[in-house]
DNA sequence: GATGAATGAGTGTTCATTCAT
DNA sequence: TATGAATGAACACTCATTCAT
């Protein structure tokens, strides 16, 4: 892709994720990219088109990652649960929640979702429904191969995912993503996962 | 309080909660209140002052409610846990998360928190820290009177609160608060609470 | 006169003399007087009326002072020139150029005269024409009683008054009137007057 | 320089010199230039920037002119005083006090100086200190080459400059600069200069 | 590919003034 | 006497966008 266009996308995402779409002006973006405002309109039809392209790119990344996770599910049907969780969680945390690009998009979605129905849908899908859906599949699998006893896989998914979501909101989707916040998140999240499995085994 | 001033506050909160503070103009507010823009400045120093007054009012309400909940804790030390939870949860859900005023404020906080440090702090306090803190106290109490066995009350609080937070985000803090969404939330939340206690009792 | 009305006049003059008429708002005045803006309109028809009253009062003061000086001229026809000048200059300096009220008015006139024909006329009359006219009379008198030799009294007046005017502009009509600036003015002005008479005597 | 930008500067100076900086709105300027208000902000950061550019241009002109006058001083050390004065006064009157650009700036400075310290300084420098300073140098020179007898060159400068300053204030810095006013000024000023030299020679 | 120049619509805010109480 | 409440007109300034070059 064109170099300038890519710069615009990068800077726009950076600013959008910090201040929201409507609070960032074309001027703001151009100041950082160091081009004139009219130049933006050579690369994009309008301001909205920048957002659209960012979101589209995110959805293709997220789709890829999620289908990758789901594939891992079928391949590793026979792996022990520890490994399975270790891998998928690691991947979900590092390449999704804390990935620079994805994290910025999600922060942007967080801001804009309340005033934009289109974005609301994307947010709900990628932050609530898809992860919960995936987690439900994981537990269904574990139940089917009798690693864990029969239970409501949907509710198990909520129990497992809700604290992760809460820690993500607390540490990863507030202001700039710092290494310190990342560590807080990892600490809280892995503690939860460990506790979760201990309880699971004890039953 | 003055009638017009109250109208301005009401309308402003309504619009802010839907679109965010900066996306709502004084013009927008005045169109609904049916006054001229300059009249706003008789009642408020500037646009920010409207937000400040709304937030201040929320904080006084939230403070009142939370101290009320905490008082209930001391009084009912001898009540059975079922009652305690029933009351506090009901109150927390209906008079806080789903209360028209508080819910709007929280939606507003959700939108603005990522681009406003001041609001970030308020959000974190009233949505994360204070409720988790309260829930921790509840579990400490239950542990101390041996209704539940010794355990990490802090982690118990997270396990208990995280799904509620997730359901609230999913159903209560997205777009206008409809009766349908309220029912979805209640359904999910009370299902979680019931399950939570069944597990508690079984251990 | 009514106490509040007087306060408004005092404060208005103070602010006008510092910032000019149009740069001072009714709000500014009311903040200092500690009344509501609407109250001003009980005492004055409009903003302009405040200015009018201030100017009118100034003109009555100035008229009084100048006629007093002119009277001194007739009475003291036989006094020696030294005394005459000493008295009139002292009076002109202290009770006119450096009088708190008159000085503020003149600073106000200075600001506004360029954009206001009415004020331009008042300024020209009381700052240029009247003093030069008076001074001309003084020199005419001195010439007529042969204290100084025949000369062009009009030009003498300019020679005498111009440096005083320059020193006044330099020290008395720039920013707030401080004691320091007053002293600078007195120093410069009396030095000039002394020099002026030495030269006069030597011819 | 850009044509529109120059037009804005010209019109702005014209209006500022008549009404003062703050009394002239961007709208006023745009009406005359025949552009939309928003266009101004393509050429200037804000209203203040227009003033700044005007003042800066004036100071470069004034600096040039004054250094030119001072150079004339060294070159013509041997010229007779008549010539020297003739040339410098002519230049100072026509290219400074009555030059269209400089005169407008000085009227603007006159209006704004009382409410703006920055401008007060510029005014004092270019209207009082610099001209008096130059004139002092002229007299020092004349004294040193014994064309005039030993005397206080500083006081001579005041005696020489004060009437010119007074006539300038009376005729050149009041309302629009008309040919009639220019003639009044020239008449008064040259009469003073002639008288001044007659007296000088007679002593 | 990029930009100089312009603009219409909109932003928050200030102002002098009015008028019923 | 004083003020609470309101307003129309103006203000400096920002914004996304257009278009000829």
What does this entry show, briefly?
The structure is a homotetramer of 203-residue chains. Chain A is mostly helical and 203 residues long. Chain A contains nine helices and no strands.
Q: List low-pLDDT spans of chain A.
A: none
Order of helices and strands of chain A: HHHHHHHHH
Major sheet summary line of chain A: none
From the alpha-carbon coordinates, what is the Rg of chain A to the nearest angstrom? 19 Å
Coarse morphology of chain A = elongated
Mean pLDDT of chain A: 90
Secondary structure category of chain A = mainly alpha
Q: Write the CATH architecture name of chain A.
A: Orthogonal Bundle
Q: Work out the oligomeric state of the chains in this entry.
A: homotetramer
Describe this structure in words.
Four copies of one chain form a homotetramer. The first copy, chain A, is mainly alpha-helical and 203 residues long. Helices cover 80% and strands 0% of the residues of chain A. The first copy, chain A, contains nine helices and no strands. Chain A has helices at 3-19, 26-33, 37-43, 47-75, 81-97, 100-112, 117-144, 153-172, 179-202. The mean pLDDT of chain A is 90. Chain A binds chain B through residues 17-20, 22-23, 107, 110-111, 113-115, 117, 120, 124, 128, 155, 158-159, 161-163, 165-166, 169-170, 173-175, 191-192, 195, and chain B through 17-20, 22-23, 107, 110-111, 113-115, 117, 120, 124, 128, 155, 158-159, 161-163, 165-166, 169-170, 173-175, 191-192, 195. The structure holds a DNA duplex (21 and 21 nucleotides).
